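Lab notebook, bench 4. We co-purified these components, and the gel suggests they stay together. Before we commit to crystallization screens, I want a quick structural picture of the whole thing.
Request: model the full complex, all chains together.
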Amino acid sequence: MSEAKPELSAVGFIGLGNMGGPMALRLLAAGHAVSVCGRDARRLDPVLAAGAVRCADPAEVAAASDMVLTCVTNTDAVEEVLFGTRGLVHGARPGLVVVDMSTVSPDATRRWAEYLNRNHGIAWLDAPVSGGPSGAASGTLAIMVGGSPAVFARARPVLAHLGRPTLVGEAGAGQTTKLVNQILVAGLTALVAEAQGLAARAGLDVAALPQALAGGRADSVLLQLFWPRMAAGDYAPTSTVTSILKDLAMVESMGRAKAAALPLTALVTELNRWLVAQGHAGEDITALYRFYRPASAC
Amino acid sequence: MSEAKPELSAVGFIGLGNMGGPMALRLLAAGHAVSVCGRDARRLDPVLAAGAVRCADPAEVAAASDMVLTCVTNTDAVEEVLFGTRGLVHGARPGLVVVDMSTVSPDATRRWAEYLNRNHGIAWLDAPVSGGPSGAASGTLAIMVGGSPAVFARARPVLAHLGRPTLVGEAGAGQTTKLVNQILVAGLTALVAEAQGLAARAGLDVAALPQALAGGRADSVLLQLFWPRMAAGDYAPTSTVTSILKDLAMVESMGRAKAAALPLTALVTELNRWLVAQGHAGEDITALYRFYRPASAC
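Here is the predicted assembly.
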């Protein structure tokens, strides 16, 4: 295997949601041939208009591609894309590189990577992202990659169109890193909501606060991004309560497996479950501010 | 009062601790005459060597100054500096500007500001800071200022040597903003510790993680600053557990007064109290990682 591997130019993209859609558009804009599949016209039309080639199913996408990116809802959805009746494995040639950008189980990820390599000669990277739809659109996602350095080196030029890829370890390590990321994202969202609740009740000029704290020890990406949305009561989904709870369930499971105490995350998880119980499952995680905002703002 | 006010060139500095010391040195380096007082040679010597003038007490400092900055431990300490037997009020001329950079009670601050203005013609700014000793030394502190726009405009050139001053409201608003800041600082410290505890137990390359998350939604100043310290078991004080608990007690008190629920902050406060109970009061707030680190790292 010492010969130079060909460039990965023919790309497949499966999962054209609020993250995958803008990512596929960036790859098209960068000049890649992009094959897609799906049944939802609302999701397909923008990428087809931008030049994507429509395939019937993941097997066809795999057959047309050197590299397939997947960005779907959860562990079961990845499993279906890979191994379903018309899954990737049924169209893939040996040497295909699969890059899963969904946020899913690290344990399942390690099993898939090993199985695909052994039985189908498929190379694997897990590459979950952080940055939301705006980061996907602007190509500034943090991309946490698990896999082998050789496969990473080949996939890197493609991933670089989507953000900043960092190899963090072997297969599964990208997903584990994403779970650590989600501890911080979910916790920070609650902290920002809690801080704004007190600021609003204490009569501070809420709108001015992120700028006043910018660059100090309290500053964070989410302070600058979520504080204004909470102040405006903007709970339009970028990352939904349902989605963060899916990730926090995996965090809980890993904490249990590794005997890691996670008291803040446990509290934050319960607060998000409470949002679901009150009918806000489909809102953005900024909706946590519903519990904190002054009554006059309700 | 429409005539132009003179420049504030003669500065007094009271409170030469791990924050005030480097701040006084920056003012001296910027060419200000700086009067100081105190009994601790270890704290005085560096600023005297840099050209500061030694006074016997706060009253003498006030008599020698157009503007006095205070940076002391707590509400009682500010009260003593202002109103003690040889406090500032006993040497101040009308027109003196007092800028309190300590983190203290917003309510007491509002009382002082009103009293000093009415009875002594002293102008007031509360200007607590965030950024730690390193921010104080590099002049990159976030400075949250409460007071009148006219006094802020006069003090701003001096404060600009210490960091980025932002006027956030009337007297007391600087302190209230600092308490909001401390909700985020204390909570983020616990979140970073919790995230690292899971990362370490899950076998991730802990040292590589802040870089992998840089710029993403999970990123924060404290992730970049505290994560490596926790990984190294570095609990050398920049901001002590005692000090954050003093601030969190004021947060609790304000939450009670304003009917603001603060569930995460309550939990974070208890974790810090637990550190005190275990003998770690004088350590940095990074010591919270003691509760999270894998046993093999203890």
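Chain A has two domains: 10-170, 176-297. Worth comparing against the SEC data before the next meeting. Chain A touches chain B through 72 residues (CB under 8 Å).
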